[in-house]
Amino acid sequence: MADDGIWNVYLAGEIHSDWRRRIADGVSEAGLPVRLLAPVTDHGASDDVGVEILGLEQEGFWKDHKGAGVNALRTQTMLRRADVVVVRFGEEYRQWNAAFDAGFAAALGKPIVTLHDSGLTHALKEVDRAAMATAQAPEQVVEILRYATVKE
Amino acid sequence: MADDGIWNVYLAGEIHSDWRRRIADGVSEAGLPVRLLAPVTDHGASDDVGVEILGLEQEGFWKDHKGAGVNALRTQTMLRRADVVVVRFGEEYRQWNAAFDAGFAAALGKPIVTLHDSGLTHALKEVDRAAMATAQAPEQVVEILRYATVKE
Amino acid sequence: MADDGIWNVYLAGEIHSDWRRRIADGVSEAGLPVRLLAPVTDHGASDDVGVEILGLEQEGFWKDHKGAGVNALRTQTMLRRADVVVVRFGEEYRQWNAAFDAGFAAALGKPIVTLHDSGLTHALKEVDRAAMATAQAPEQVVEILRYATVKE
Amino acid sequence: MADDGIWNVYLAGEIHSDWRRRIADGVSEAGLPVRLLAPVTDHGASDDVGVEILGLEQEGFWKDHKGAGVNALRTQTMLRRADVVVVRFGEEYRQWNAAFDAGFAAALGKPIVTLHDSGLTHALKEVDRAAMATAQAPEQVVEILRYATVKE
Amino acid sequence: MADDGIWNVYLAGEIHSDWRRRIADGVSEAGLPVRLLAPVTDHGASDDVGVEILGLEQEGFWKDHKGAGVNALRTQTMLRRADVVVVRFGEEYRQWNAAFDAGFAAALGKPIVTLHDSGLTHALKEVDRAAMATAQAPEQVVEILRYATVKE
Amino acid sequence: MADDGIWNVYLAGEIHSDWRRRIADGVSEAGLPVRLLAPVTDHGASDDVGVEILGLEQEGFWKDHKGAGVNALRTQTMLRRADVVVVRFGEEYRQWNAAFDAGFAAALGKPIVTLHDSGLTHALKEVDRAAMATAQAPEQVVEILRYATVKE
Amino acid sequence: MADDGIWNVYLAGEIHSDWRRRIADGVSEAGLPVRLLAPVTDHGASDDVGVEILGLEQEGFWKDHKGAGVNALRTQTMLRRADVVVVRFGEEYRQWNAAFDAGFAAALGKPIVTLHDSGLTHALKEVDRAAMATAQAPEQVVEILRYATVKE
Amino acid sequence: MADDGIWNVYLAGEIHSDWRRRIADGVSEAGLPVRLLAPVTDHGASDDVGVEILGLEQEGFWKDHKGAGVNALRTQTMLRRADVVVVRFGEEYRQWNAAFDAGFAAALGKPIVTLHDSGLTHALKEVDRAAMATAQAPEQVVEILRYATVKE
């Protein structure tokens, strides 16, 4: 909860479905005192940001390294400022960065909400164990935020 | 003391008497720069929130577990943001969550005020020892907040 | 895990049953690399230590306050050094100090194991939620320690 | 570096190849002042530990939850004690717990070494960015440990 | 520096001379972005606050204890929020609380400015050593604040 | 990111070129939610501030010591408040204070951006390794800030 | 409590009476697992250590500054390692360093025992409030340490 | 001071003169309870360690980056474990890593001793200000360590 009474909620993980928009819509409709934070969700821009700004690389490893640095500057700042961290896992990709963000948040003592289908339950058991809640739909996350921020 | 000069005061513990309202009234009448924070005080809603939002459970243990997670997401965020933590113990129930909140606040270095009748003194000696003040009436808490925030 | 490879395990809570001895026996029989720490479990000595060492008090509140200070000097040092905190709740007394210790440990990021009968489940839901495991028998705690310290 | 001059090195991640043994052999042959720590690597035991010790569950989610709690009690203690955290990613499974451990270590300021084949480079870019070194073979990790601990 | 760009400056120590007013006047005249914080400077009110609010005590020790608790609730909150801590030592009284506040601030990593006559130099050498500056007049403190907050 | 959604960016290092102005211009033109912080960049004023405010010194060492204290009061406060720390190294002077600021920021877990010509790469390898990005032109820093703060 | 089961107890404050020896004798006679730490108690050596090792100074302020730096290197290291901090106040001198050490220890969350005659009670109320116990004789401190370290 | 009563002293900075050996000889001759820690002082090995262990790089920047990572794994672990950090600046090279280490140590609250000729005083004023002592000869550092560790 920020000093203005608004909660900073960081939405980590999957960038290929509309879950962030659905949470944003729910928060907006409910008029919750919540500020949503997120990584850059334009996949191409995120992959290329390092070489775009700082110069080309020949090796893929270093191209990725540069890009990951610029993204981490953003995401770690947001993670440190967040009151709640929501981490979404989808079916595609390995999404190790989502799990990394969850571990980072856990070590900082941030409350975590995981969001994923039940088919991923066993694979995500360590991450879910570190969470205060595990949801399957974005609307459930909105309900949790409503309960946390304005329920009396 | 938040950056806007307002103190965040978290009111932990008993939810079955009017002590929070009496403190709120006192703070309001005195015009103190205090933002009161609290857990959800609707007992039924608090007990059921886990299964309400995240789906039914057959086992009471897991129903409680789910609900406690959603409540902890709220209370731990508020505890971490609080400048002062007031912890109220009543005659009913075992109120282990109130003592838990007090221990949590103590380890974070937050100043604690305990609020309870003198009949509970011996049972609460460890918690009272960790507090900066032990009050018996909500109005005393208001006076402490007045002294802390606006007395010159 | 201390630098000598030994785990410091603090046994908080109830002092009127033999649960600490049963854990100590189990740890000893299994030859686990575990150093058990505990508060003073002699109830009378614990209650009187303040006035015994530092002088009599007329008011019960201050007698308790003195005693709680000396006990806290011991218990908070042990809590800070512990790798794992086991918290036992029994049927007798309100045991607010046990819940306080659990909250203190939780805020420090220490893994907690709670130990209590199933009849206390609802009352302890917030404390159990903060724990890595909830056991009903001391022998289960020994098994957890065996798994944590020597299982390959 | 522990007080006895020995470095605690936690080996996180994949449990289905012989990478831990190869590091252990290398450390042993070189006589390095290194104490290797690891999660339980018996997959079945790790999956079942929760219900084995604490009682059966009907729901897979809660069975996993119980097991993950007992495992986390071990792994988070070791992570907090570690001087260096090596995180291995293999081809099989999603290994979100490995990425979670890496994020946890990063937030604690622990130096990380990642270990994986070059084919995983792009998928692991965020984790590799948080690491001090990225190796492809266990023997390279041994060389890093040799350099860190005994090279003059 | 608070999020609104204003610096919180805590003025600890002596309450029997006009040094706080002189700093306040200087800050005001210079229009500095500084919020001045202070303990209660009404000596009688400060001494009596414990028993005034929480009930009379027979023993002077416990009267002082109660009062010191309420004052600490205020001062430690302000110390934790302060960007800069100014500590004033005068000729009268032993002022152990001023030195205590300085030690508290030092351990939190807060920059300290000490303010005292040159006659106290040897007695205050440990406190001065922990300070970023040692001034003899309040106007010097104002100049330091001007330099820190608005000088380009 | 401050509670008002604005990022505090501290610009450490070289004070003899126009790099800070170029970043300020870029931030301003792009309308970024960024608050730029900086040490005093008037070299003479910075060198003399100690003796100017606190009295003359005969020894150069103590003149420097006094001045460095007043400057550190400003810079360490800003470093602690910063979300991002940009550190500029130029060709002139040894600039040990810039590297000191970088180390200070690194230990606090702040994301760092280094800014220097490629000729300094080898000499700055340890500082660059601790940075999330290494830029050669102020305009690249502006692009990084744009990406971090407003890119969607 | 150190990893070898021994408690580090730092004895701060007065260096002109035999209180440290009396505690040392008591600890030794009782065979307590306690390692006693202390500042240099040779007053002359302590005052002169800065100029003795690092070269003469003309100004008393800087002579003191140098000496206080070397002493702080010792005392702050010991304070950070201490499990318990005993702070002794005597009748002579202003002893601001003792109160500074107490404040430093308090902010670090170290349990404090104060030791002084009852005549100093009012002047030391803030320091005593931060302590877990206030003793008047060294033998009482030994009893507290016995209770904390070996009582069952 | 480690749990075995030995102080960990990290010797940062210049690797081209015999200052570390002179401190080691002094410590050894005096029989001080001090464990000396250091970066790898073989310049070539230090520069090449990254590519030696982890594979060649075409770009100098990335060769340096790899090497600096492996070195940082060692030095940051030692810095975190150190009780005292000695930082040596010589005439050659820019030694930004030495100043970086000093800033890193300062932010962690480690006592620092700087060691350099008087000709570097003005350039090092910020670093010296953060130090508890500034020496010109290694033998002075030995005397400081003797005073800190064994003087009574």
How would you characterize the overall build of this protein?
Eight copies of one chain form a homooctamer. By secondary structure, the first copy, chain A, is an alpha/beta fold. Chain A is built from six helices and five strands; from the N terminus they run βαβααβαβαβα. Chain A has helices at 19-30, 43-54, 60-81, 96-107, 125-129, 138-149; strands at 7-13, 34-37, 84-88, 112-115, 133-135. The first copy, chain A, has a five-stranded parallel β-sheet, sandwiched between helices. In chain A, α1 (19-30) links the parallel β1 and β2. In chain A, α1 (19-30) runs parallel beside α6 and α2 crosses α3. Chain A is globular. The model of chain A has no long low-confidence stretch (mean pLDDT 96).
User: What is the mean predicted local confidence, pLDDT of chain A?
Assistant: 96
Radius of gyration of chain A: 16 Å
Q: Give the helix/strand class of chain A.
A: alpha/beta
Total strand segments of chain A: 5
The largest contact between protein chains, plus residue counts on each side, is: A-D, 38 and 38 residues
Poorly predicted tracts of residues of chain A: none
Task: Give the N-terminus to C-terminus distance of chain A in angstroms.
Answer: 16 Å
**Lateral strand order in the biggest sheet of chain A:** 2-1-3-4-5
Overall spatial form of chain A: globular
Instruction: Describe the main β-sheet of chain A briefly.
Output: 5 strands, parallel
User: In which range does the helix fraction of chain A lie?
Assistant: 40-55%
- The helix-strand sequence of chain A is EHEHHEHEHEH
Percent of residues in beta strands of chain A? 15-25%
**Assembly status:** homooctamer
Annotation field: number of helices of chain A: 6
